[in-house]
Specification:
The chain is mainly α. It is 62% helix and 9% strand.
Length: 183
């Protein structure tokens, strides 16, 4: 039994390292992020690991918000690309929140268009259906963006994950050594 628990812990730690590496690698190669300051697989209050990045402050274009959503999905995508079981509930919630904001608050849904819809707005079933489709489309677009970016960087994901397994926490200089200069 002790071996199983040790094996489960090692598997969870590796999955967390791959997950956080996915976030870090995605942000490193995205121009919507200034830098990645720190990546850790030390458990926090609500997570098994965390990536600390500096996002560009102004997100006024749809493509920037989609890129932001993709960054939340990148950990899950990295797990998939390396054949691991997905476990990214918080990130999926955050991505869905941003996609919902994109459509309902920012008026950037392709079907709904320039319209503000908050929780007090009474909407028809037809409009609700359009909103849901726009949110789903934004999530799918962001997922494809994250997958496209990370699929060609699997070796970078592995390198960052292995470094995390060895050191538990890495910083910008470690990422520069592993990934090259930030784009």
């Amino acid at each position: 039994m002790a071996r199983e628990n040790k094996a489960d812990k090692a598997e969870t730690l590796w999955r967390t390292a791959v997950h956080e590496a996915g976030h870090a690698v995605y942000a490193w190669f995205s121009d919507c992020f200034i830098t990645v300051r720190k990546v850790t697989i030390r458990p926090g209050k609500n997570s098994l690991g965390e990536t600390f990045d500096d996002r560009r402050p102004t997100k006024t274009r749809r493509s920037d918000i989609i890129d932001d959503i993709a960054s939340y999905l990148a950990g899950m995508v990295a797990e998939e690309l390396l054949g691991l079981k997905r476990a990214a509930c918080y990130d999926l919630d955050a991505a869905t929140y941003l996609a919902t904001d994109l459509v309902q608050e920012q008026g950037m849904g392709r079907r709904v268009g320039l319209r503000h819809v908050d929780e007090d707005t009474i909407v028809s079933d037809w409009l609700r259906s359009l909103i849901d489709r726009d949110i789903r489309d934004a999530m799918n677009e962001a997922y494809r963006l994250a997958r496209k970016s990370l699929a060609r960087r699997k070796s970078a994901i592995r390198a960052v994950a292995q470094c995390l397994m060895e050191h538990q926490t890495i910083n910008t200089k470690d990422l520069e050594r592993l990934l090259g200069p930030k784009v």
